[in-house]
Specification:
mainly alpha, 6 helices, elongated
Length: 145
């Protein structure tokens, strides 16, 4: 997702290129791409210049959405899932102080993820030193002794 965030607005990025940059197997990235597409976070384009793009700008994609798409509901323990369809009622949930701990851990993780977007993980494009120096040349004065 970070690589797609870096490519946002420049057209589709190929999974082969992302696999090479991230040193990950392409087959694994294909599995992730299917999950992300099903969650509505990425779109795919077929063809020679095809690949994947973000479905929305990086600023509009919360890290909670990304994590839930890839990993499922937030649940540090099975008894503390934030998804009612995946919750597990333990016989001791009502009196268990450890369950209270896991629910607080889950809520803290969800709170941290909710405050971050994909844009927070995409570094700003910084001009290279050569390009920056070339931009400054017209403004430099040459002083001779």
């Amino acid at each position: 997702m970070v690589q797609l965030g870096r490519h946002f607005g420049t057209g589709p990025a190929s999974l082969g290129d992302i696999a090479a940059i991230e040193d990950m197997p392409r087959a694994y990235l294909e599995q992730l791409a299917f999950l992300l597409r099903d969650a509505g976070l990425v779109a795919s384009t077929r063809g020679a210049r095809g690949g994947y793009t973000l479905a929305r700008p990086p600023e509009q994609i919360s890290m909670t959405e990304v994590l839930r798409a890839l990993e499922g509901p937030l649940a540090p323990m099975i008894c503390a899932s934030d998804d009612p369809n995946h919750s597990f009622d333990c016989d001791r949930t009502s009196t268990c102080t450890v369950n209270f701990l896991w629910v607080r851990v889950r809520d803290a993780i969800a709170g941290a993820l909710d405050t971050m977007t994909l844009a927070d993980l995409v570094p700003e494009r910084i001009p290279t030193p050569v390009a920056a120096a070339a931009d400054l040349r017209p403004h430099l004065e040459v002083v001779t002794p």
